[in-house]
């Protein structure tokens, strides 16, 4: 940057000129200006017309600036001119951040004195300690009184010339630990007192050494007594006992710095702190560690238990590519050296310590029910339900799940399921009740049955759910007819479609097929290529039968999306079904729709939900912790968007997507589930097309149009997911743009940010190593590139995930509407099965659906997955106060929050618009999934900041 003025200018508030050029931009004071422009601190421009004659030593010591007319900002380089008194006797001191300057009164300046500074440390207590921990608490209280304390030390932004690193304060213990040992509270505040010499400078970091036996959770630290006011240090982290980890923990203040702006006194800590999270790729991770490392998916199978539970390693394999997961480093299995051993039931899996679900009153819901779900619920249900593998006999039996519930077995007051479910919370929060007196588990009525009991049977509802249901992200505009397959006929046989013009003729409102295509009125739900390669492997398994489906839909003048033809494919065998005009063909049409819905349910769960919003995000989380310092403005920005993702993903690998887990048991693809997911990652997933506009354009559901507010025009205006999603997309984009613009002014500032470049490089080449050669990865060389990448990431973890996650019970909680598993193919005319079908079509339909156990287990799982925790953070919210001290960033976030309120109202209005028939009308469910806010529980609305369930 350039220092320019006609006067002589000298930077005085630095130990050396190097400090200034290294970015001490918030601690600048000036006495004399150079006569010519001088290259100085990166990211800093100082223009001073009449420099003050006097610079106080207090200004130098405290890291505040003195300027006669203009203020200096680390982010904005030059704030609006601020006229000051020119009297040299009354220099005025300012804290120099971006946004409005904060003036320090003369009484606050305390010139020439020694500062007494108090640290208020907020510690969150554990609510559920083990016996061992409770014993250690007693020992800690006693030993604390004897001198074994939690000790803090402040680190200055300034370098100590003697040590060459940031100046250190005195070491100060938390002085009131022992006396507060008996306090019963969620949070307790402790104090530590410091005496700072006037030459100390502004504290930019705090180290903590925990000499106790128990770990402690430090929520935040407020440093009081400094003339610039309270300085905050967001921590939200476990500090381990020195007996576990002898290293001191380091926490930085909430002043964001790009790497080049790092105060000289903090540079070494910034680097060391980042490296401390990276690990070395070796060893078994221990529960208390905070190591973020990568590994392939080698932890899904359980070959030691049964060779049939062996699963291929996903990732690091050209045939089975996959995103990386957080490394746990457990020993190999005995039977397969490449597979990581499986934990026994009840053993805790490793996730970095600070990523574990927090344990407090509000979070108990998430912790208990989710962990209960993945650890114990499913096995317990198997044991506890009276039903075994029998099937529903009628629709009435399914309805009874909501009205009367399902009988539990062996109820003697301490039924295993009851213990797992923690009844008091489940009843209130999940509306899934267990009646102790009658020994019955009762399910909440899903939304699909709430307004129109028979809506699910109708074709228009079948089409509506593709635009506003549980999986509204798959439908595409038909571009050619008949559709073509890209599969290799050498391997998969004749892959020509069996769909003919006559299947559609007469039902296109007078249009020919080509005219309907040209007018953008034909659509397709296509699982042919994604599933056909797996069909044979699935269908040899007992109790699992699937097709690879294609559904052609027509958008009528009345505004409905009607399915006109369904093609169901087996390798070498294709059948086409159309809506029937007689009893038999009507029932066959219903069976065909059920198979399509089952295809949709499986692909939705494995690809659109698990892969595209859970698995692909994990490398972003890992890279963020490894490559971005917590003082980096992007780390601060991203933090709420990665909340709880490592834990929920680790939970899923433990009991949802693992061999013999919920997904394999309850969804048709069974053991090939994750291979389908890998195939989709291989052929479909592209980062650049995960942005909402690009995804819509890829699927032909929108076209570029510069005249439209979003830059694209929806082919179907009444596409609730897309139209509401674009509201969120634009709001996220604006917020990202404003935030990024605060810190990056030009391409050079982006290219020179070593942490940012390392972060993106690692995401592309390590976290997504199997995709590193793809040309579609965006590079980040300009602020615009960065804005695009961040907007996509935030959209995926918020709006996209919400859209595919929180409608699961509303539509999947009623298995006839969305069968998670299909157990029979559709009978062929002339067979005994066909005769059975003719004699009792309802019974045949039931025999095709999940059996009672599969259905009820899936209902419990999707019930939990569709629920919000009471402490959920939604878009536009940040639970952590003082997340940044940058007022410009806080102002931008306030605008984002207000925009969420606007979107709430717009969506509510849309749901009342009678012309939007996919979200309003007689018995039609409103589309509320992308309304940003929600209460706790299963609400079918609400967009959390992160993938947390
Ligand atoms: Fe999810």
Condensed summary:
The chain is α+β, with helices and mostly antiparallel strands.
Features:
single chain; 949 residues; alpha+beta; Lipoxygenase-1; Lipoxygenase-1, domain 3; five-stranded antiparallel β-sheet; 31 helices; 14% strand; globular; disordered N terminus; binds fe (ii) ion
Furnish the topology, listing elements before pairings.
Blueprint: E1 2-3, E2 10-11, H1 17-21, E3 30-32, E4 38-39, H2 57-62, E5 72-73, E6 77-78, E7 93-95, E8 102-104, H3 106-109, E9 115-124, H4 131-145, E10 150-159, E11 166-168, E12 172-173, E13 187-196, E14 203-210, E15 216-224, E16 231-239, E17 249-252, H5 267-276, E18 294-295, E19 325-326, H6 364-384, H7 395-403, E20 406-407, H8 416-421, H9 423-429, E21 433-435, E22 440-442, H10 447-450, H11 459-468, E23 476-477, H12 489-492, H13 501-504, H14 513-518, E24 522-526, H15 528-539, E25 548-555, E26 561-570, E27 573-577, H16 583-615, H17 618-627, H18 633-638, H19 645-655, H20 662-666, H21 673-683, H22 692-698, E28 702-704, E29 712-714, H23 720-743, H24 747-751, H25 754-767, H26 783-805, H27 808-812, H28 832-839, H29 841-848, H30 852-865, H31 887-910
Antiparallel strand pairs: 1-4, 2-3, 5-6, 7-8, 9-13, 9-15, 10-11, 10-12, 10-14, 14-17, 15-16, 18-19, 20-22, 21-22, 23-24, 24-25, 25-26, 26-27, 28-29
The protein binds fe (ii) ion (FE2).
Fe (ii) ion binds next to helix 16 and helix 26.
InterPro entries: LipOase, LipOase_C, LipOase_C_sf, LipOase_Fe_BS, LipOase_plant, Lipoxygenase_dom_3, PLAT/LH2_dom, PLAT/LH2_dom_sf
Family: Belongs to the lipoxygenase family.
Keywords: Dioxygenase, Fatty acid biosynthesis, Fatty acid metabolism, Iron, Lipid biosynthesis, Lipid metabolism, Metal-binding, Oxidoreductase, Oxylipin biosynthesis
């Amino acid at each position: 940057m350039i220092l320019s003025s006609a006067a002589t200018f000298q930077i005085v508030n630095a130990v050396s000129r190097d400090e200034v050029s290294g970015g001490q931009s918030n601690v600048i004071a000036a006495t004399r200006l150079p006569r010519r422009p001088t290259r100085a601190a990166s990211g800093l421009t100082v223009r001073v017309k009449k420099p003050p004659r006097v610079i106080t030593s207090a200004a130098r010591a405290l890291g505040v600036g003195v300027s006669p007319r203009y203020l200096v900002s680390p982010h904005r380089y030059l704030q609006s001119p601020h006229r000051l008194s020119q009297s040299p006797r009354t220099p005025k001191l300012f804290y120099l951040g971006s946004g409005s300057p904060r003036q320090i009164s003369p009484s606050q300046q305390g010139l020439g004195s020694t500062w007494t500074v108090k640290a208020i440390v907020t510690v969150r207590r554990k609510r559920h300690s083990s016996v061992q921990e409770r014993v250690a608490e007693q020992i800690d209280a006693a030993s604390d009184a004897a001198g074994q304390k939690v000790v803090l030390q402040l680190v200055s932004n300034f370098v100590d010339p003697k040590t060459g690193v940031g100046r250190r304060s005195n070491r100060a213990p938390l002085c009131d630990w022992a006396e507060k040992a008996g306090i019963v509270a969620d949070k307790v505040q402790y104090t530590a007192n410091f005496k700072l010499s006037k030459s100390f400078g502004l504290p930019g970091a705090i180290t903590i050494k925990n000499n106790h036996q128990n770990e402690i959770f430090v929520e935040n630290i407020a440093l009081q007594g400094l003339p610039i006011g309270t300085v905050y240090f967001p921590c939200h982290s476990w500090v381990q006992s020195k007996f576990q980890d002898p290293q001191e923990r380091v926490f930085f203040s909430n002043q964001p710095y790009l790497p080049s702006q790092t105060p000289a006194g903090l540079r070494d800590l910034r680097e060391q702190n980042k490296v401390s999270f990276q690990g070395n790729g070796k060893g078994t991770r221990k529960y208390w560690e905070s190591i973020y490392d990568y590994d392939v998916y080698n932890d899904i199978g359980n070959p030691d238990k049964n060779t049939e539970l062996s699963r291929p390693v996903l990732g690091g394999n050209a045939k089975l590519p996959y995103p990386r997961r957080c490394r746990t480093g457990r020993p190999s299995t005995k039977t397969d050296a490449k597979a990581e051993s499986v934990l026994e039931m009840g053993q805790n899996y490793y996730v970095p310590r600070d990523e574990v679900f927090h344990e407090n009153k509000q979070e108990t819901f998430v912790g208990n029910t989710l962990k209960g779900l993945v650890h114990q619920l499913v096995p317990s249900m198997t044991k506890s339900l009276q039903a075994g593998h029998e099937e529903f006999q009628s629709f009435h039996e399914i309805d009874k799940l909501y009205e009367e519930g399902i009988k539990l077995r062996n109820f003697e007051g301490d039924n295993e399921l009851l213990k797992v479910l923690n009844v008091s919370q489940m009843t209130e929060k999940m509306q899934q009740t267990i009646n102790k007196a009658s020994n019955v588990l009762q399910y909440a009525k899903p939304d699909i049955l709430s307004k129109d009991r028979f809506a699910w049977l109708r074709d228009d509802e079948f089409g509506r759910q593709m635009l506003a249901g549980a999986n509204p992200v798959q439908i595409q505009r038909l571009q050619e007819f008949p559709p073509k397959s890209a599969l290799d006929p050498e391997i998969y046989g004749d892959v020509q479609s069996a769909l003919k013009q006559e299947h559609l003729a007469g039902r296109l409102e007078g249009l020919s097929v080509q005219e309907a295509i040209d007018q953008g009125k034909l659509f397709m739900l296509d699982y042919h290529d994604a599933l056909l390669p797996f069909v044979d492997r699935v269908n040899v398994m007992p109790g699992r039968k699937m097709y690879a489906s294609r559904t052609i839909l027509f958008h009528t003048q009345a505004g409905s999306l009607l399915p006109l033809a369904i093609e169901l494919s087996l390798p070498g065998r294709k059948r086409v079904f159309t809506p029937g005009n007689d009893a038999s063909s009507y029932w066959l049409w219903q069976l065909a729709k059920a198979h399509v819905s089952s295809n949709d349910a499986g692909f939705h769960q494995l690809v659109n939900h698990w892969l595209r919003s859970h698995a692909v995000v994990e490398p972003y989380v890992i890279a963020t912790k490894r490559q971005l310092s917590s003082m980096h403005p992007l780390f601060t920005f991203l933090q709420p968007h990665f909340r709880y993702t490592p834990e929920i993903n680790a939970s899923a690998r433990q009991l949802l997507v693992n061999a013999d887990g919920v997904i394999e048991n309850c969804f048709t693809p069974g053991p090939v589930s994750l291979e389908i997911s890998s195939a989709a990652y291989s052929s479909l997933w592209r980062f650049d097309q995960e942005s909402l506009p690009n995804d819509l354009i890829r699927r032909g559901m929108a076209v570029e149009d510069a005249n439209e507010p979003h830059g694209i025009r929806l082919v179907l205006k009444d596409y609730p997911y897309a139209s509401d999603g674009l509201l969120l997309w634009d709001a996220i984009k604006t917020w990202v743009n404003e935030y990024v613009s605060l810190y990056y002014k030009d391409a050079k500032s982006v290219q020179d940010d070593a942490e940012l470049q390392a972060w993106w490089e690692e995401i592309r080449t390590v976290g997504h190593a199997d995709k590193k050669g793809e040309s579609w990865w965006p590079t980040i060389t300009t602020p615009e590139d960065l804005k695009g990448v961040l907007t996509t990431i935030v959209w995926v973890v918020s709006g996209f995930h919400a859209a595919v996650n929180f409608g699961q019970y509303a539509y999947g909680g009623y298995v006839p509407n969305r069968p998670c598993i299909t157990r029979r193919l559709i009978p062929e005319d002339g067979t005994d099965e066909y005769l059975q079908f003719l004699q009792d079509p309802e019974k045949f339909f039931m025999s095709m659906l999940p059996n009672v156990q599969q259905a009820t287990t899936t209902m419990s799982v999707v019930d939990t997955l569709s629920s919000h925790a009471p402490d959920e953070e939604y878009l536009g919210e940040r639970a952590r106060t003082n997340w940044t001290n940058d007022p410009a960033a806080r102002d931008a976030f306030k605008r984002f929050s207000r925009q969420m309120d606007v979107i709430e109202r717009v969506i509510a209005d849309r749901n009342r618009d009678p012309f939007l028939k996919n979200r309003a009308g007689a018995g039609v469910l409103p589309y509320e999934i992308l309304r940003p806010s929600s209460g706790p529980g299963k609400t079918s609305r609400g967009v959390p900041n992160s993938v947390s369930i």
